[in-house]
UniProtKB/TrEMBL annotation:
Domain of life: Bacteria
Species per Swiss-Prot/TrEMBL record: Fusibacter bizertensis
Name of this protein: SUF system NifU family Fe-S cluster assembly protein
Limits of the NIF system FeS cluster assembly NifU N-terminal domain: 7-91
């Protein structure tokens, strides 16, 4: 399978399953992200306990890329410490900006690596980074 079809398949499957798209009743942090250029409006809800991200989910509406990037991010950071999640956000945002990222770092991103191609699609960058920016704001609090 080519990278393009893996990318399409992952995005479709995350949007179909919607397993991370629901209300988190006991969220400790909530951050809304808005991308006016595309119309994406997503809210990330995270439950942090003793420095560990024990649960996360999102709500809102947005394009397939923004929702899949958010959902894949949630899978990735759940059960990680705040410090680990911060490091992942840095790696992901560097990758999207087209900066140098080592292969060891890329491996840590797991499925989120499919969004690397966004670095060549400037119009979609904000879609693919919306969820990560919400996470960044929460983790800096
Ligand atoms: Zn979008």
């Amino acid at each position: 399978m080519s990278m393009d079809s893996i990318y399409t398949e992952l995005i479709m499957s995350h949007n179909r399953s919607g397993h991370n798209k629901h209300k988190l009743a006991d969220a400790s942090h909530i951050e809304r992200g808005h991308n006016p250029s595309c119309g994406d409006d997503l809210t990330l809800q995270v439950k942090i306990e003793s420095g560990l991200i024990v649960d996360a989910a999102f709500l809102g509406s947005g394009c397939a890329i923004s929702q899949a990037a958010m959902s894949i991010m949630i899978d990735l950071v759940k059960n990680k410490t705040v410090e680990e999640a911060k490091a992942l956000a840095n790696i992901y945002l560097s990758m999207i900006r087209g900066e140098h990222v080592s292969s060891e770092q890329i491996e840590l991103l797991q499925d989120a690596v499919v969004f690397e191609s966004l670095s060549k699609m400037p119009a979609r960058v904000k879609c693919g980074t919306l969820g990560w920016h919400c996470l960044d704001v929460i983790l800096e609090k």
